[in-house]
Amino acid sequence: MGSFISAFSRKEESAELVPLKQRVDVVVCSGSLSNSVEGLTHHIKQYINDVVRTVRFETLPYNISDMNRFDLTGIDVLLLCHSIHNRRFSITDVTDSLYDGFLQRARKTLGKSKVGVIAYDFPEADLSPEILPSKMASFRYNQPTTFECASLALIGGKLDEGDVQLTEDQLEELQQFFINSSSPPIEEKLTVTMRSSFHLITCNVFN
Q1: Mean pLDDT per segment of 10 residues, for the chain of length 207 residues?
Q2: Which terminus of the chain, N or C, has less C-beta within 10 A?
Q3: Which pTM was predicted?
Q4: CATH assignment of 4-206, given 2.60.120.620, 3.40.50.300, 1.10.10.10, 3.40.50.2300?
C-alpha cells in the first residue's frame, strides 16, 4: 500500500525536537516474539532518536494474572504492542480482553501521557483511508478503557523487519506521543509522584 512508510527509506532528520536531558527511554512490550515488532523498534531507534534516547523490548507473560504482576518499576515510557494473531483484537472491555488491569495499572504508575498502544497485524485492506477511520471509531467505542489509559492508540499492519505498516500520519502521531511523554502535564506528574510515595510508605509500614 502506497501510504505505508518504509522504516529503511525515510530520511533521518537531524534537528533536535527535545532537549537531550528530556529524551525518553521506551519499553516496547508484547506478548508476541520480539521479531514481530523489530521494524518498529528499528524505526524508533533510527528515525526518532532526537526524541527517544533508548528503546528496548520486553516480553509480556501469557497469563493475565502474571501480566498483572509485571513490574513497571523503572519504566519511563511504555508502548504496548498487541498482535491480533495473539488472541484476537481483544485489548480491553471485550470478551476475553487481555489488558484491562495492566493498562489501568500502567496509567496509575507512569501517567497516561507515558502509555501508548498499537494493535498490529491487521490485513492491509483494513488500513486503507476508506476503512481505517471506521476501524478506529469501532476501537474507541468498543474498547474505551484503552483510550482512557493510553494517550496513543493506533491500528497498524506488519511491524516486523522491512516495511512498518503505519501511515505517515500515524508515524507523526507516534513521534508526537514521545515528545509529549518527555514533558507530561504537571498535574499528572504530581499524581504519579504521590501514588508512588504512598506505595513506598505502605510497603515500608507492612514489611
Answers
A1: 49 54 92 95 95 96 87 95 93 95 95 97 93 97 98 97 90 96 90 68 52
A2: C
A3: 0.87
A4: 3.40.50.2300
